[in-house]
């Protein structure tokens, strides 16, 4: 194998592929990055039996071939190369990189022991890459981190015709986002539970292209328990999680007793300031009345903080308390300069949304948050 490649193109492709390399590979070859040079393209792959990543980039090929080298080492080397074209050659059990006056020699691993990457499921449709990344980011923040309950560490992806609904919950909050996409078939419908971390990393890394193609088996065909994403010459597949996701729609209240509106940016800053005195796992209290909301944290002999902000309120005065970290996650993701908080009682879930573009339009992002019971 012998080829030449632009230094920045190599560094970018290797860095993207190396994201999916396992930290503690179950077998040594999974720490490797698979290189295939043929035609005028270099294909780099990584796979850990759960997630696969593959990217292709332009090269000048002299001799086609394949090699398997330490992925992390290749990533560190390619990141630190001087700004010159890179020449890559194989010599027996070694791969040599020459870049300007720098020369590196890497040992290869047995290519024949490397597992075959999974096939992409059938293409289901496409969505704008920036909108998809933003939507996934809004929802993944509410996914659980506890691996003992795997289904709560995932994002539920529901596809029905031209609508994709993403939902995630850790039992203390729930985030739901709807977006439009272009399905391959107008009657396509499917449901998948995708690991939240994988989905968030993937969506963020595929914004180089204008669109992301989503590959998924439809109703009646699970696509081999796999979902695939492709965009900008990059392709990722991920195994789906097993288990039944919570019936989250029943958690969203159908009617509310009160609605408050607050400027988002000042609200975020005030929550951050007031929560400085909140001990771990203690809430920030919000007291809504006509024209203002008073934020408080700390009680009794502890440090205390109080701050008042302008707010509009429809309905009766209400005192309600939230975990400040969960509240900030929601406020940071509503994507609106006005935050709307809809509530029923101080002990039942409240729903945080941005202000919809037009009255009567349902917000496409809803963040349900469980209140903390106030003592006394």
TrEMBL record:
CDD domains, sorted: beta_clamp
Gene Ontology cellular component terms for the protein in this record: cytoplasm; DNA polymerase III complex
All residue ranges annotated as the DNA polymerase III beta sliding clamp central domain in the record: 128-245
Protein origin, superkingdom: Bacteria
SMART domains: POL3Bc
Biological function: Confers DNA tethering and processivity to DNA polymerases and other proteins. Acts as a clamp, forming a ring around DNA (a reaction catalyzed by the clamp-loading complex) which diffuses in an ATP-independent manner freely and bidirectionally along dsDNA. Initially characterized for its ability to contact the catalytic subunit of DNA polymerase III (Pol III), a complex, multichain enzyme responsible for most of the replicative synthesis in bacteria; Pol III exhibits 3'-5' exonuclease proofreading activity.
Family label: Belongs to the beta sliding clamp family.
Protein name: Beta sliding clamp
Species in which this protein is naturally found: Actinomadura rudentiformis
Lineage: Bacteria, Bacillati, Actinomycetota, Actinomycetes, Streptosporangiales
């Amino acid at each position: 194998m012998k080829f030449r490649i632009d230094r920045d193109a190599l560094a970018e492709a290797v860095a993207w592929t190396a994201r999916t390399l396992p930290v503690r590979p179950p077998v040594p070859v999974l720490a490797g990055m698979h290189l295939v040079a043929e035609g005028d393209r270099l294909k780099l792959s990584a796979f850990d039996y759960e997630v696969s990543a593959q990217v292709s980039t332009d090269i000048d090929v002299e001799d086609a071939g394949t090699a398997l080298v330490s992925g992390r080492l290749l990533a560190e080397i390619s990141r630190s190369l001087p700004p010159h074209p890179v020449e890559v050659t194989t010599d027996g059990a070694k791969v040599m990189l020459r870049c300007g006056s720098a020369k590196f020699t890497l040992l290869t691993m047995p290519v024949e022991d490397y597992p075959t990457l999974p096939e992409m499921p059938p293409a289901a449709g496409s969505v704008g890459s920036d909108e998809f990344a933003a939507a996934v980011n809004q929802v993944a923040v509410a996914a659980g981190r506890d691996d003992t309950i795997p289904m709560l560490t995932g994002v539920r992806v529901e596809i029905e015709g031209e609508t994709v609904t993403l939902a995630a919950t850790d039992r203390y909050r729930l985030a739901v986002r709807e977006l439009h996409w272009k399905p391959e078939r107008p009657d396509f419908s499917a449901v998948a539970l995708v690991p939240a971390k994988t989905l968030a990393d993937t969506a963020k890394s595929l914004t180089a292209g204008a669109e992301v193609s989503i590959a998924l088996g439809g109703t009646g065909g699970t696509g081999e328990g796999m979902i695939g994403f492709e965009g900008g010459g990059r392709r990722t597949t991920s195994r789906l999680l097993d288990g039944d996701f919570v019936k989250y729609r029943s958690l969203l209240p159908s009617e509310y007793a009160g609605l408050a509106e607050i400027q988002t940016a000042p609200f975020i800053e005030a929550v951050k300031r007031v929560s400085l005195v909140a001990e771990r796992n203690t809430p920030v209290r919000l007291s809504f009345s006509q024209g203002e909301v008073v934020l408080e944290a700390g009680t009794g002999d502890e440090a205390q903080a109080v701050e008042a902000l302008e707010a509009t309120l429809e309905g009766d005065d209400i005192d309600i308390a939230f975990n400040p970290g969960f509240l900030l996650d929601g406020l940071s993701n509503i994507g609106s300069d006005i935050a709307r908080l809809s509530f029923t009682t101080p002990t039942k879930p409240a729903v945080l949304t941005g202000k919809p573009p037009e009255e009567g339009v349902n917000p496409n992002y809803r963040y349900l948050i469980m209140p903390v019971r106030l003592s006394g």
